[in-house]
Design brief:
Layout (H helix, E strand, L loop, with lengths): L2 H10 L3 E10 L2 E8 L4 E7 L2 H4 L4 H12 L11 E5 L3 E7 L4 E2 H8 L4 H20 L12 E4 L2 E4 L4 H8 L4 H7 L11 H4 L8 H16 L9 H10 L14 H10 L11 H12 L14 H12 L2 H26 L3 H34 L15 H27 L1
Antiparallel strand pairs: 1-2, 2-3, 3-5, 4-5, 6-7, 7-8
Helix pairs in contact: 3-6, 5-9, 5-12, 9-11, 13-15, 14-15, 15-16
Length: about 425
């Protein structure tokens, strides 16, 4: 039995009975225990002594009390917190049946897109609620997301804030505590730079790193040391997640990229806003994202695409091109003495081309919307696979090329 466990048992008295140590490190040491009076299993987390030594116990208790006020389906609640002589600080939470997201990622490496979006929506829902109650997590990572009965729950809410606030929240204090106030692979640039004004947008950045890992099988940045990771967060731009996994819908990739913007002002500004984007990704027929605004991009893009390929617009452009073409052909008939059937041939070809262009426009519109929203089109049937602007223009060019060749041959024979 470790010295820490012995001290903890003394501090807990007869309220809890420790069953085993589950490990830990960094932010806390973790013990599985039983709450004797109620007969339920709980998890007790103890701050490392070197961290607890610099913490003001009274202020830590006040901050933990604020975190304990959170009541949400996707937040693991804090049951109680306590202190003992010296540097012993602990807090108690319910034991959650299931596994951590970290354990799932170690086993599966990459998760299906739909499962990733489902987990992210529940984590973001928890963040939105906490941020509305002025609680910032500051340490979102797979280890702090628990999966139970197909639901995601976020644990350790407010603990990093309680530690930083009760240690003075000075630059030197944060630096001395080091990695305890965040995990390098998921820390926002402002956390890495020890900015004293870290706010809820740091959680949005960390969520972007979490989402990136769930889809790509790796975090946005890698390094041999914590210092290399922190430097990358501050100075390097991450590759789009689609560089590692091409099946990720563009809308979801753009959502994650905006979460990972270096400047907080360039990210999604609230978890509620981000939740709306994930809702749109989950129902791609109605939405997607835009990197620069609050309106879902795919909704805007789909409207733009519809306008671009609208039958009236296509017909108008075709009419302008047809008038110009007939004007040129008429001038050649008058100026060079071409037979009148050349002009009539041009009229016939243009009459055939109009419905082809209208049908192609409708098909290209559907194709563009499908690609933009990440939805897959059905396999082409019959002539549909040939309905592209490139092939339509090429076909028209070949038709007029044939008419020109016939006119040249006729004029040559007439001259001879």
């Amino acid at each position: 039995m470790s010295e820490l466990q012995t001290r903890l048992e003394t501090a807990l008295g007869s309220t809890y009975r420790i069953e085993e140590e589950l490990g830990g490190g960094g932010m806390s040491f973790v013990f599985l225990a039983e709450e004797i009076e109620l007969g339920r299993r709980v998890v007790i987390k103890v701050l490392p002594p070197d961290m607890a030594a610099g913490v003001n116990k009274e202020r830590f208790q006040r901050e933990i009390k604020l975190a304990a006020s959170l009541q949400h389906p996707h937040i693991v609640p804090l049951l109680t917190a306590g202190t003992a002589e010296g540097d012993l600080l602990y807090y108690v939470m319910p034991f959650i049946e299931g596994e951590s997201l970290r354990a799932k990622l170690e086993r599966e490496v990459e998760l299906p897109v739909d499962e990733t979006v489902r987990i992210l929506r529940e984590v973001v829902d928890a963040l939105a609620y906490a941020h509305e109650h002025a609680v910032v997590h500051r340490d979102i990572k797979p280890d702090n997301v628990l999966l139970s009965a197909r639901h995601a729950l976020v644990t350790d809410f407010g603990v990093a804030k309680a530690v930083s606030a009760s240690s003075g929240d000075t630059a030197s204090g944060l630096t001395s505590l080091g990695m305890a106030l965040g995990t390098p692979a998921y820390m926002s640039p402002e956390q890495a730079a020890v900015d004293p004004h870290v706010d809820h947008r740091a959680d949005i950045y960390a969520l972007g790193a979490l989402a990136y890992e769930m889809l790509a099988g790796q975090t946005p940045f890698t390094g041999n040391t914590a210092q290399q990771l922190l430097a990358a967060h501050v100075s390097q731009a991450p590759e789009p997640v689609t560089q590692h996994r091409t099946t990720v819908p563009p809308a979801l990739s753009e959502t994650i990229s905006r979460c990972l913007e270096k400047k907080p002002a360039d990210r999604w500004q609230t978890a509620a806003e981000l939740r709306g984007q994930l809702d749109a990704v989950a129902t791609p027929q109605t939405g997607g994202v835009t990197p620069t605004g609050t309106q879902p991009v795919s909704a805007v893009s789909s409207a733009d695409i519809a306008a671009k390929h609208h039958p009236v617009r296509v017909a108008a452009l075709f009419g302008v091109a047809a008038a110009a073409t007939l004007a040129v052909v008429y001038a050649l008939v008058i100026g060079l003495g071409l037979p009148t059937w050349v002009f009539l041939g041009a009229v016939v070809l243009l009459a055939i081309g109009l419905p082809i262009m209208l049908v192609t426009g409708r098909h290209e519109q559907a194709r563009a919307v499908a690609l933009r929203t990440g939805m897959h089109m059905a396999a082409p049937v019959g002539l549909k696979k040939h309905l592209t602007w490139r092939k339509a223009v090429l076909g028209g060019g070949l038709a007029f090329g044939g008419l020109t060749a016939a006119a040249v041959a006729f004029m040559a024979m007439r001259t001879l």
